[in-house]
Amino acid sequence: MAHLESRKHISPASGFPITLHPNFNPKIKDHVPPEPFRGLVNPPIDRAFFADPEKKALFSVAKPVDLTESLGTVLENVQLSQLNEQQLDELALLVTERGVVFFRDQDLTTEKQVELFQHYGDLDKHPAQKFVNIHGSREDHRELLNYTPWPSGEFHADTSFEINPPSYSLLRMEEHPDVGGDTAWVSQYGLYDALSDAYKKFLDGLHAVHTSRLQYDTILDLWNVGPNRPPIDTHHPAVRTHPVTGLKALNVNTGFVTGFAELKKLESDKLLDFLAHHIHSADDHYVRWKWTVGSVAMWDNRCTVHRVIPGRYKGNRRGVRTTVFGEKPYLDPASESRESASYAKERKVMLDSRSSISVINVGF
Q1: How far is CA 254 from each of CA 113, 188, 210, 274, 291, rounded to the nearest angstrom?
Q2: pTM of the entire structure?
Q3: Which CATH number does 31-355 carry?
């Protein structure tokens, strides 16, 4: 962290760096983004809508192994590079249902990864880079918060502050240490399920304030790169409806959400405190992935949040991430939680079964 501007200004009283407001940090205040503000886009139809619900083509070449009840599936004995369009569509559907899908020992190159992911839509350009090289961090993210405003070690959904946040993301690991640098995901379907009915109703009526301003300031100072676009603030529903599954998912993350439009400041702060605890304590809706070189994760930002687990690991960590534009988040009041939809489905199966038994008994 020696290159941080704050590190150059030491308090004579404490001997520690003086935190500089972005307006007084020349790296931040003097930066002029080369690209204009990006407005609403209309992404193509989600490829999951073209999938066979039973995923017969995909499962004919890959063995699914669920890692937890709530989210996370490994597909074994398959190369992503060899999947045809139908299988890729079914993979998208599986990702919308399971949140994140993992692969080991893949032969993808960056060129093939880009080509493959263009099947899912228009590639989204990160505000700082075209294709994001993921390195992880050995810094103490708790200490970094003294000098940078963005909580870089927190759970987030990729660039959720955009008008059109990404739908799918894919990360392929090219270098990785033997120990450390894991990534954790939490299901936002599950986070919504775990709330009381009263809290669900409360959150259904709120808009979360997503902002890139904290990241914008931080990456200029910490990453030494200039964001391509000006910072943006958006108000998205605090609970969103997934367009493919039709299920409600919490749409709040600790990385980019700073408050709630309908609430006063102290009310927002208290709610954010609770939801930070809610996300970090969701062990029953959590999966942690141990990376190896050649492993791949594909996830849905509309129904998960994720974070790299910070640590003091040794060795390089480098991966390539691609993402595609999603739809503008919305809430359909008629949509259901995953738990409610599952209960309704199980009840229907039970009632259908009873009806069949009754018909058989009448026949006898």
Answers
A1: 29, 13, 10, 11, 24
A2: 0.91
A3: 3.60.130.10
